[in-house]
Design goal:
There is one protein chain. The chain is mainly alpha-helical and 185 residues long. It has 2 domains: 1-134, Orthogonal Bundle (Arc Repressor Mutant, subunit A); 139-184. It has 7 helices and 2 strands, in the order αααββαααα. The chain has helices at 42-53, 58-68, 77-89, 108-116, 118-131, 137-158, 165-184; strands spanning 93-98, 101-106. The chain has a two-stranded antiparallel ribbon with strand order 1-2. Helix 1 (42-53) crosses helix 4. The longest helix is centred in the C-terminal third of the chain and has 22 residues, at 137-158.
Length: 185
């Protein structure tokens, strides 16, 4: 019913996932063993490659990266949107406005940049595939997805206006029952 709306507190990545293993502007992960998700310039190349697959909005890029890493890392909007602005400024993507959102498309300059860095891009995606493949990640993602779906359903229902006492009690009872089932698990 709902899609993945979560940020995993990634404990998957150790030092050396990126080329230099240090922290930097593309490091946005809670928990874990330190290290860096993307080396300098890697995220920009990943974003170009994903936009080359199909034009995307910023949020779609966040979700695509999160999915490629099996939820173990979610880039923040504070990293994605400035990078998109940079890519637009250097002429590698163009943006068309759709309502309040921008749809980003690769330019010939962006295609050339990707072609010149094909080996690097392939290596980045190989690392992403390897990093996102931990056993047990799928089970954890399923539970996190369900938790976030519950939060989203509650937010959506609460945004529709007042909830009468009977409906409020049914919601509270359902959540309490779920909590008991988890505890007994």
């Amino acid at each position: 019913m709902f899609h993945h709306h979560f940020r995993h507190e990634g404990r998957r990545f150790g030092h050396g996932f990126g080329r230099d293993g240090g922290h930097g502007p593309h490091h946005h992960r809670r928990g874990g063993f330190g290290g860096r998700i993307f080396a300098q310039g890697d995220l920009r190349l990943v974003m170009l490659a994903l936009i080359a697959e199909k034009p995307r909005h910023g949020y779609e890029l966040i979700k695509a990266i999160e999915e490629r890493l099996a939820g173990t890392y979610t880039p923040s909007p504070g990293v994605i949107y400035p990078t998109l602005t940079l890519l637009e400024e250097i002429g590698q993507v163009t943006a068309t406005t759709e309502g309040s959102r921008k749809l980003y498309t690769l330019t010939p300059e962006g295609e050339q940049a990707l072609a010149e860095q094909k080996a690097v891009v392939d290596a980045i995606f190989a690392r992403m595939t390897q990093a996102g493949g931990d056993e047990g990640v799928a089970a954890m993602l399923q539970i996190r997805r369900a938790m976030e779906n519950l939060k989203l359903a509650l937010r959506m229902r609460m945004s529709q206006g007042p909830i009468d006492a009977e409906h409020r009690q049914r919601i509270a009872d359902a959540i309490d029952a779920a909590a008991r089932a988890v505890e007994q698990g």
